Fold each of these.
Amino acid sequence: MPMNPNSQLSLPTFPWHATLVVILLTVGFLSIGESLAQSGGTFPGEPFNGLQIDYSISGASLGAPVDEEGFTWSRRLDGKLTGGKLVVSGMVRASSGWGATVVVSLSADGAEPVEYTTRKFPEHGLFPDPMAQPFNVSIDIPKGARNASFSIDLTGDYNAGTRSVVVSGNLAGAGGGSGAGADAGTNAGTGPLRKDFPIEWDVIIGPIAGGLLAGGALAGLAAILSGLGSGNKGGESEDEELPDPNRVVRYILNPSTDHLILLPGDSAPLDISVWAITAGGQRQLAGDAGIDLSLREESFEVVPDRGQGMLRCQVRAADAPSVFTDELVVVASGPGAGTVEAKIALGIKPKLQLIVELESFDP
């Protein structure tokens, strides 16, 4: 069996800090509150033996994370149920070792447990063929449920054994009642609303702080909800006008940068994400949103060039480029929202070569 170059395991430690930003927006009877800053994240901040989890939790208000390190790195996020459906989504990544397995488990008082499992064990290990697996798992919360829980368990297999990264939480509360006896007109996700409600797009370049605290996403959401809340007529009550807080009302196309400058033959990473924003103010990875990338010239290459939810690409410049500029066109599509386009400027910086000729001189 060939030796795996990534078989040496380490247990590094990383400094951790968090800044909690709370914005309270009230429109009619709808609040966007403390869950904004705590609904999602990346753990650990740097991959542990190649393992890392991007996660988003909707249908719950979460407290501050509690992290522990060891052979298993764990993050615990306890909190309260806030809706009739608990949704856990995101992406797991594994880039070293022989393979990896992810198990996403959800349970709720009075409901059948839900579990999603997938694994990847390429012939030559994960270093040449890494795992990047999106997930979106949900469970209906019965009316009056007293508790629920979730767990995202990512385990890698190495020559020296296994290592794991886990994000989990326990959620207390009375439940949101989307199960038996709930109003079918406020179904979560892509279900029907009491009123027609548009799904719009934003394009935000670079990191998104606190889920919504960048660009015009929060202002745009406030404007939509304000217009909806002020449109009640006759005997209609104001909360009949408001959408289900778990309903997706906006998508965000989120490239990591708007330009890349490379030397001939060099490559650079590029991340493309699509986020879904709910009417309740939560951000989650839009695992069902399509992403397509295209180039006009042959002086650049991007791999992979399509996917769903999140793409981690490598953009490479040709060794002998025929042109030195191009645009990478990113087209994203979301269910019920049409498409949006963003362009990333690409450039190649010519290599400068200094040639020095020395001549002998005999005085």
Amino acid sequence: MLALALFAPALAAANVPTQAAGYAAPQAAGGRAVEPALIWTAAGAAAGAILFSIFYLLKRRVGGFPRNPQWIAPITIMPSKDFPDEGTFPDAPLDPHGPSHH
């Protein structure tokens, strides 16, 4: 959405007709205007965001997201210093398909 907002003025400015020195106004690619496509894209994105927000709030109000669920996904935070290294598994057989160490 941010990219659309940033590039829309540049695309619209490129399509502004100029009548300087008797030259014809430049046309957009294929002779089609850019502004209607940008406007409908922005309107569709905004309508989709509003629609999904309404569905989310409706599901929340109906009880689709319980306050105290019976099951919560286990999340383990493990510092990188505690990661297993090669010395952790000294008896492991060499993997013939593993990366070669030359």
Amino acid sequence: MCNHNPAENTSSTEISITRRSCLTGIAAGTGLIAGCFGSGNDTGFSAKDVPEFSVDESAQPTPILLAYTIPESSSIEFLDEFELKLAIGNAGGSPISDQTIELGMKFGNNSDDPFSPTVNVPEPVSTDLPEIESGEWKSIRVSMRVNAGGNWTIKSNAVAHPSFNPQIDVKPKQLNVGDVVSSEIGHFEIRALKPEYRRAIHYQTEEGGIGMFSEEATGLIQAEDGNIFVVHRFHIENTSGEKTVGFGRTQANNGFGNANIIVRSGQTITSDRIRDPLDVGENKELFGDNYIDTDQTKELVVIQEIEETKITEATMTLSLWGNSEDILFDTIQESPAVPEFELESATVSEQDDGTAVINLTVKNIGEGAGTFYGAGQFYASRPTASNWVFLPDGITMALDPGEKVTESFVPSRGGERFRILPFKKELEV
């Protein structure tokens, strides 16, 4: 056995470029890499890049991974395809000829724990090697495509030099309003939409108590003082005519059961916070357990509560696998004009038939147009719950800046004492 400080063998003619089967994708069971030979005279390596390695003169041809180069790692994003160059030596005593090795990708955040989120990394693919004399090295080029944001490395059935430790940092794909990311294998296209801004959000619940039947009601959750709700929106289109796509606990052909949302500032608001379903609007669906049928498009929303002074920091990242950072929605480039609402007046009176009617006037004193979400309550003594009981219907008003609207409604429940949220304005007949 002897040590070699090798120089690349370039005495032969330029290595011919040979295509390998390209396995790219995002969904479970799909591949990620395609291999081809690079030019023997265009290696991307210098002698100092390639470490010394030991040669066993009595051994069969033995490929050894020595070094790698990639484009600037900061430029590689989720679903990008990039070229990887590998320096491969021969640590055996006879030439490598007509030999293949397996090359694949390994996601750094994957765990051996079967209950932990895992990126479905594909099986490695076989790559033909050029002829390499004993103790010498040559380079190959491999075209790669990654299906998760995070740290990746290279795996192979070939021996790796102790200094061979690839670390490939893959950034999430960043989307501004109107930007799109798509996967032919995953059968989806995701488009970022313009966010909305709310001071409060309706939710659906049931209200009852001692001496009262339980009835459907509209509750209200409001942002804390100084905060605002940012409603992130995106379209997801199922581009397949045969396979379904799903997030969470839904059963789908291309299912991302551990998909979740990551925010760096503030917090996400989910139905779990109030144990009742949030009302995010017509033709919209809260991100979570979502099923997208063949050739279907849905608008999904994520609600983030954040300090109003930090609204430009209201980004969110979609992790398709649960342990990755894949799509960064950065849709607020500058501080937006947002609505703010003031209660100008509220009264309750008794009609000729003895029922109550509530009149209220709300004004938008903010700089942006928006929708006012409010709720009415009536008073009832309940030993095990709040004495303020939500009415069946919520209050909704679309207001431009400076505009005020007056509405009247007859509460379908209650007697003589009422309250208007979010202003906590109490009224009595």
